[in-house]
């Protein structure tokens, strides 16, 4: 899920370069970017994005402090830690979420668990950082709250309930997944209706709202 602005809370994103030279070493960091909206990305689109939010574990495709998918990550690196405040609460929550989504099927409760975990952190906590810029735990919680009922990076469907590997769910199309488990492909329209999708769009800034509405109109046109 690619989020930098959800529920009026902005998060700066760090996107990986197109071709990192060594997958075991964090690549040179590009300029932080914004206005990639979670509600503007469908399940398969969201699964295709990787970005670093903060710490060693926060961000899809970011695990163990490097560009690494959850299913390929052994969660062995320590979370971001500060001498004055100890371990980052937000990064601990993200690490638990990576473990849940990567190695502990079924995945139905993974997003609920990270939302609950982040809600227990001080919302103003600044111990999870990106390029030395702190990202408030409350901002990450607001972003994850939008997809609390999803199974990790996509809406829950039978493969998640049956405990199918997360890799299969993330790397096949909705139609392929439906054929594999004998169910209808999930809707790519958040909320199921255009009006519901638009209701998920953040109202500010205007450019973000307009981008989200445009995406909703495109993705909900067949609903």
Q: Strand content of the residues, in percent?
A: 5-15%
Q: Kindly provide the name of the CATH class of the domain at 49-156.
A: Mainly Alpha
Average pLDDT works out at: 71
The name of the CATH topology of the domain at 49-156 is: Phospholipase A2
Radius of gyration: 17 Å
Q: Helical element count?
A: 9
Largest beta-sheet characterization: 2 strands, antiparallel
- Sheet/helix structural class: mainly alpha
Distance N terminus to C terminus? Answer: 22 Å
The spatial strand order of the largest sheet comes to 1-2
Quaternary state, please? single chain
Order of helices and strands: EEHEEEEHHEEHHHHHH
Number of strands: 8
Descriptive report:
With 223 residues, the chain is mainly alpha-helical. Among the domains are: 49-156, Phospholipase A2 (Up-down Bundle); 192-222. It is built from nine helices and eight strands. The chain has a two-stranded antiparallel ribbon. α2 (89-103) runs antiparallel to α3 (110-119) and α3 packs antiparallel against α4 (137-145). The longest helix has 15 residues, at 89-103. The chain is globular. Residues 1-14, 18-47 and 164-186 have low confidence and may be disordered.
Furnish the topology, listing elements before pairings.
Elements: E1 5-6, E2 9-10, H1 43-48, E3 62-63, E4 66-67, E5 81-82, E6 86-87, H2 89-103, H3 110-119, E7 129-130, E8 133-134, H4 137-145, H5 158-161, H6 166-171, H7 174-181, H8 194-199, H9 206-219
Antiparallel strand pairs: 1-2, 3-4, 5-6, 7-8
Protein name: Phospholipase A2
Main location: secreted
Subcellular location: Secreted
